[in-house]
Amino acid sequence: MIRPIPEFGVYASILGFRKVRVSDVEAFLRTVRGAASPAEVQVFDADRVAGWRHLFFATVNALRAFKSGRNVSGGLAVEILIYASGQGQIGRAIEMLGVKESTSNLAVLIVGADESIVKKAATGVSDAVSGTVDEKVLEIGSEEKFQGLASLFGIAREELGTVVSKSPEEALTLLVIERGALLVAAH
Prior knowledge:
Elements: E1 2-5, E2 10-18, H1 25-36, E3 40-45, H2 52-68, H3 76-85, H4 90-97, E4 106-112, H5 115-128, E5 132-133, H6 143-152, H7 157-160, H8 168-186
Antiparallel strand pairs: 1-2, 2-4, 2-5, 3-4
Helix pairs in contact: 1-5, 2-3, 2-8, 3-4, 3-8
């Protein structure tokens, strides 16, 4: 699904893939970037993503950082990774959410100036990535992923209890998004 971000005049699409094979991370990233060009693209280990909203709001925060001149990286794709991780350091952000040779579930975020560019990029990426398109890899669909995300983002059970939400999964997603939003205040 392609979502507009009217405040910045761009569109974003978030794709999920299951059973992806990554034998060479750098070559894989070059292939995905080439398939998405001229759109911006960032790739994540989907097992470390708390739903599509996590990546969507990281994108909005990254766009705001560039607009205000408070970006910490030279490119939008890296800035999105920083906000998605809630880390101010690029290396730590890559370590937390980046693709590794062990990655089998993939999230791909595409940002472009108009809907047709994003749609074309999404098609190109889908053709270039080995694996099955499956948006469900973005969801917090298991206790194992829930616990892994809580640990990765340093979210304790007590903190989850402070969030008014419909479910523990939604509370976790909101707290993960908050971690990225706190970077805005720190810069």
